[in-house]
Amino acid sequence: MINTTPCHWHKLTNHLNKFLKYGITVCIFIFFGCFTYGQKVFRGHIMDEETMNPISYASVGVLGKEIGSISDSAGTFKVNLPNQVKENDTILITSVGYHSLKVAVKEATMKSMFQLKAIEGVLPSVMVYDLKKSGRMGDDTVNYSFYRGWYEYRTGGEIGRIITVLHKKYKLNRIAFQVDNKCDTCWLRLRVRKVANFEPAEDLLQQSVIIPVTKHTPLDGVMEFDISDLGLLLREKKIYIGFEVIDCKNVDGRPLSLCFIGADYGEHYFRKYPTVAWTNEDAYGLYLKMFFDY
Asked: Are residues 227 and 103 located together in one domain of the fold?
């Protein structure tokens, strides 16, 4: 049986690898799922309501449950629905730049095509940017590390932090972060959100900006999302900046391991699926830097 119980943070008491001197590490481990007898397979295609073009990397899941997946580049998805999912539960389909769609499980499983309506004034395109690097971060003292794991690919897991900006108006250009990635390739999507009720809320960045991350260690330096050409002009005093894990792959079938490097202060937010509530960890922060004009 697949364990759907939320994973907890665990303190590692064994000796840490040398790279941990660069920061507390938040690790995301993704494992192969086990086959569950009696579960249903929910398949379909997600398309733009107006253009009928496929919507890549949309999230599909059961509202309030840790069950879901991500559509591929052709807009196709597959979600395993275990027996505890009822006909009156709700399927939630979301994508950056589109209005979300809610459909009862009974109705959704009888359909194969799902159309999303683009948010007015937003181009419904997926822009994939080349990976860029910047200078190396300074050293941090590390006492322990944490990890979080789950058993499914393409869950849309997201991790990030809230930043207070002192300027009334600013243009966001670049976001720098640190990872330790042992996978052949992972695809990460940048999320910039409003903050409501002290939690991440609706998207401010309405374009889907995705970068591929190949094998990488903290010794290789920081990584960056460059969105300077998008003209993201903001006025919010508090914003959330996060990273959504779209997918990770190893060609030889090795277990997957993607780790986000943390900082020894602050806090971070995490959710395993877009269909569940955020959790907050205030023991330490997620390392990132943002660069902007003001």
From this structure: no
Are 79 and 198 in the same domain? no
Cα 118 to Cα 37, 100, 111, distances in angstroms: 38, 9, 21
Burial 122-147 (b: 16+ CB within 10 A, else e): eebebeebeeeeeeebeebebeebbb
34 domain-assigned: no
**Distance (Å) of CA 26 to CA 54, 139, 166, 232, 281:** 33, 17, 28, 28, 11
**Token pair of 201 as six digits:** 């809320």
With contact defined as beta carbons under 8 Å apart, do 189 and 222 qualify?
Answer: no
- Is the residue at 51 inside a domain? yes
Contacts of 44 (CB under 8 A, 6+ apart): 60, 76, 77, 108, 111, 112, 113, 114
For the stretch 263-285, pLDDT in tens is 766 678 988 888 999 999 876 67
- Same-domain status, 176 and 289: yes
Boundary (domain end) residue, out of 85, 116, 147: 116
Which of the four pLDDT bands, split at 50, 70 and 90, describes residue 2? very low
Does residue 13 lie in a domain region? no
> In whole angstroms, what is the distance from residue 63 CA to residue 57 CA?
18
Please state the domain count of the chain: 2
Pairing mode, strands 146-150 and 25-30: parallel
DSSP 284: S
Q: Which of 112, 121, 109, 71 is nearest to 93 (CA)?
A: 71
Tell me the one-letter amino acid at 49: E
The string of pLDDT tens digits covering residues 28-85 is 444 333 333 457 899 999 999 999 999 999 999 999 998 989 999 899 999 999 989 9
Does residue 12 sit within a domain?
Answer: no
